[in-house]
């Protein structure tokens, strides 16, 4: 699994002109599923996302995680993160999870994070989404398990 996390001051996702998910301070998580991913990898990545220390403490050092700052998650499925871009000028998606597998693990990721007491908003799986954000920093990390 792959998560591109962005520390945001605010973020939202729209589908057909309607906002379906929005947060203020927190993390925008673009989530990609690969064929070899399973429940154990999902839980490991979700724990890493929630625990990753990307928020500044009183000294301005990145020492605080999402829960410590009272932040929220906006989780958006993004199969293009699983693209193989190593050859040629067109991405290959042969390593991406099937739509059924990806939807299952995406929903499990969201449920797992919410069960830990975090406020979680989402996009819509497989929809044409427009994602807007005000990146804080900017601070962006690519996390994989």
Total beta strand runs: 8
User: CATH superfamily, called what?
Assistant: D-tyrosyl-tRNA(Tyr) deacylase
The CATH topology label is: D-tyrosyl-trna(Tyr) Deacylase, Chain: A
CATH architecture: 3-Layer(bba) Sandwich
CATH domain class name: Alpha Beta
Topology at a glance:
Elements: E1 2-15, E2 18-23, E3 26-32, H1 39-51, E4 55-56, E5 62-64, E6 72-77, H2 99-115, E7 120-122, E8 129-144
Parallel strand pairs: 3-6, 6-7
Antiparallel strand pairs: 1-2, 1-3, 1-8, 4-5
Helix pairs in contact: 1-2
Summarize the model shown.
The protein is α/β, with parallel strands linked by helices and 145 residues long.
Structural commentary:
The chain has 145 residues and is an alpha/beta fold. The chain has one domain: D-tyrosyl-trna(Tyr) Deacylase, Chain: A. Helices cover 21% and strands 39% of the residues. The chain is built from two helices and eight strands; from the N terminus they run βββαβββαββ. It has helices spanning 39-51, 99-115; strands spanning 2-15, 18-23, 26-32, 55-56, 62-64, 72-77, 120-122, 129-144. Strands 1, 2, 3, 6, 7 and 8 form a six-stranded mixed β-sheet that branches. It has a two-stranded antiparallel ribbon with strand order 4-5. Strand 4 and strand 5 form a beta hairpin. Helix 1 (39-51) crosses helix 2. The longest helix is centred in the C-terminal third of the chain and has 17 residues, at 99-115. The radius of gyration is 15 Å and the shape is globular. The mean pLDDT is 97.
